Structure of Transient receptor ion channel domain-containing protein:
Amino acid sequence: MFIQRVQKTSRRAVSSRQYNVPQLSTDSSNRVYANLEDEFLHAAESGDVHTITRIMKAHPEMDTECIDALGRSPLRLAVKNEHLEVVQVLLEKSSQQHMYEAALLAISAGHIQIAETILKHKKYLDMCRGKKKLGATDDFYKTAFPDSQFSPDITPLILASQKNQYEIVQLLLLRGETIMKPHKFSCACQECQKKIEIDQLRLAKYRLNAYRGLASEAYISLSSKDPISTAFELAAELRRFSSIEKHFKCEYIDLADQLSDYVVKLLDRIRTQKELELVLNKRGKPDQEKFSSLARFKLALKYKEKKT
């Protein structure tokens, strides 16, 4: 009897020890990974590419898209602080969503080289090809990336256009990307009615974001065969919108004025009498060689462009 009690007690002690060991091991492991993540995040923020590569090599199973207390990932920190080498290393382990967000961050911050690096990366190009195969989707219905500072309908082309980043705009235009012109305010199609029912203010912001891109100097200069005519027509359209749009009246007026200033800049670049005659007398479509006396001047009067 005594021996049996000793054996039972011994088994309980062993069982207790066996139960507690994994728990301690797990806690210890969690602490190790937490410290690693902190070190990894700090290295990304400070541009310590050697620490980044060392940790990734020693701990391939570690989540390289961990976040700090402010919700910032290592890639986001590296982009923000313009650490190109760190960005290049992290892109190899980044998801498509994080890569897309990083491209927007780089464009927003004006880090052109980093933006180009991301936009030219094989994984980013694969993502773009995949989207093309699925067909065009309406950005109005896109959901925002967690902790993103950008509206879900903002694309790299729209953002680069708004920032007048000619290098990025040209890169994306050469790939066949465009900014889709929103439907007219008076459009009563089923799709527009559906969007109004879902969120009228969101639709208004979606439309404004698109026009901010369309009205940019970079986008018009690189996408239009006749920038002056395009600017005149778009400015007149935006002024009409300002009398209809109740949410962003002032913004549309500012965009129209911005286009008028853009035309003045173009005219200021004229250096010879021949150039002046070609510009002032051009009429018709951009690809048509038609000229008449002061055609551009008459067009400016038609669209009430006083500055030109």
